[in-house]
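Input/output pair, single chain:
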Amino acid sequence: MSNNLYALLTVVVLFTVVIQACSKDDRSTAIGPTVSTPIQPGSTSTPISNTITNDTAALGQALFWDPILSGGKDVACATCHHPNNAYTDGLDLSLGPNAVGYGQNRRFVRPNDVLLTKRNSQTILNTAFNGMDVNGKYEPLTAPMFWDSRIQSLENQVISPIIGFEEMRGHAFGEAVTLDSLVARLSTIAEYRQRFQTVFGTSKAITAANISIAIAAFERTLIAMNSPFDRYQKGDKAALTEQQIQGMQLFKDEGCPLCHSGPMFSDYQLHVMSVPDNTQLASSDTGAGGTYAFRTPSLRNVGMTAPYMHNGVFQTLQQVLKFYDDIGEPISQNPHVPVQQLDVKIQRVALRDFEQEQLISFLKSLTDPSFNKTIPVHVPSGLNPGGNIR
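Output:
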């Protein structure tokens, strides 16, 4: 393996890449190593207001699995972020209230007037590191959340699905009274009163802010940073196969790190890619600020988190690579997006069949299946953990 490639891909322990906008011909001159603080699994930065303790994370886990936080008491955070799907749901677009079943078997109950969610449910593995730059630095208070980066920090992100009609709220109450209504619900449950008091030190600790703090604390414990790629970079040269090493070279040569850079394999920036619309939606998703821009997803655990893109239109990594082949003249793949609007960093990925296999094999080497897969048998409300998923 070349020295330039090693410098590019040592993104976890010692080195990370510095990527500048450049053409494919001169890209090698824009890549250089920079010393980074090693990332220790289980060690994350947090806002001053949210120091993670075992009690806080345990309370957050209970809330994460408890459908008491949904309007109809039938949906939990875990409904769409389930450990059996690497904390996604395996669907292109999620089904929230008035639905039953788990993952790809989930279906709406009839009659139904609740719509599909607008976008694909991203994994929350390593979401503690959102916004991390190529030097391994990030600020949890300004970490970008959602496909359009419309919200910053995990604490703020937690609230949005809870009040979202298609995600968790449903018809039970209006958006303006959602949080007050849920606080009132939790306050009637003795176990929650006791656990909130233990964590926050007051008898009136059940608040919307503390709910978000607890769930965010739990989500920051969901770390997956011990993939074969990570072990390879730490010196275990047997951790990757020859095919994966060849795929790692292709990853660099094809310009993937222009956007998939840094320890999380994401620049966390918005890009206009002209992904085709999901035909199940009544209207085109215009992305951030109506620009059709969406945030670069992390490639960590990408082999476990299909389907892909902001609307789940691609079921396989092969389909994703075909999209990058088709787009790369550039040629827009969405009639609502003019060619002139496409991101300047787009590079055509035109690979032979065996090269596709190599690149996909490397992408799958970013998988760490050793994350927390605990499914509680009980939540304080007494409802089914995860909601109506059985």
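The chain has twelve helices and eight strands. The longest strand covers residues 15-17.
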